[in-house]
UniProtKB/TrEMBL annotation:
Protein's name according to its UniProt entry: Uncharacterized protein
Lineage of origin: Eukaryota, Metamonada, Carpediemonas-like organisms, Kipferlia
Top-rank taxon: Eukaryota
Length: 172
């Protein structure tokens, strides 16, 4: 890549408040830039604090035995935390949480279950608990009608993982 005089910036000036700068090039184009570093750092800090509070809320729910709340909070935090919540709760609490989360969250629950099932026997157990809760609450027809082929992909993956796990048990 060659740089010609036409491509170069011919003027640069920092704004009085120090929060931005203005550049000008040989074609007469002026560009203004705002320094958003401090704002981004504040957003990252806020996100980190929110994440820490949510993790603490998950821990408190698990310690207090509020399993349904733990599953709901785990769902908000993502698949890793959801699995932790499912592992620490009863089938009934998972069913209650699935009902509270609603049909719209079923695809995300099934996708997370599919990922867990890929990771071995403990993951398959958690995946099957969530899948059972989803289908007990909403029924297979309702889930398939709502999500179509998108729901079949995680289910097929869970079935393959379960078959693989059963084959390993047969060898033992």
């Amino acid at each position: 890549i060659s740089v010609t005089d036409e491509d170069r910036v011919w003027g640069i000036d920092v704004l009085k408040d120090g929060q931005g700068l203005v550049t000008a090039d040989s074609s007469g184009v002026f560009r203004a830039y705002d320094d958003v570093t401090e704002l981004e750092m504040m957003e990252r800090r806020r996100d980190r604090v929110t994440d820490i509070l949510a993790r603490q809320e998950l821990n408190n729910a698990l310690l207090a035995g509020d399993a349904a709340k733990a599953v709901r909070v785990g769902f908000r935090l993502g698949p890793k935390h959801l699995r932790r919540a499912v592992e620490g709760t009863s089938h009934t609490a998972v069913e209650e949480a699935v009902a509270d989360l609603g049909l719209a969250s079923c695809l995300e629950l099934l996708n997370a279950s599919h990922e867990w099932a890929k990771k071995g026997s403990r993951g398959i157990g958690c995946a099957m608990i969530v899948a059972q809760a989803v289908f007990k609450e909403y029924g297979v027809e309702t889930v398939v009608k709502a999500f179509g082929a998108r729901a079949s992909v995680p289910l097929e993956g869970m079935l393959k993982a379960a078959e693989k796990g059963m084959d390993r048990l047969a060898v033992l």
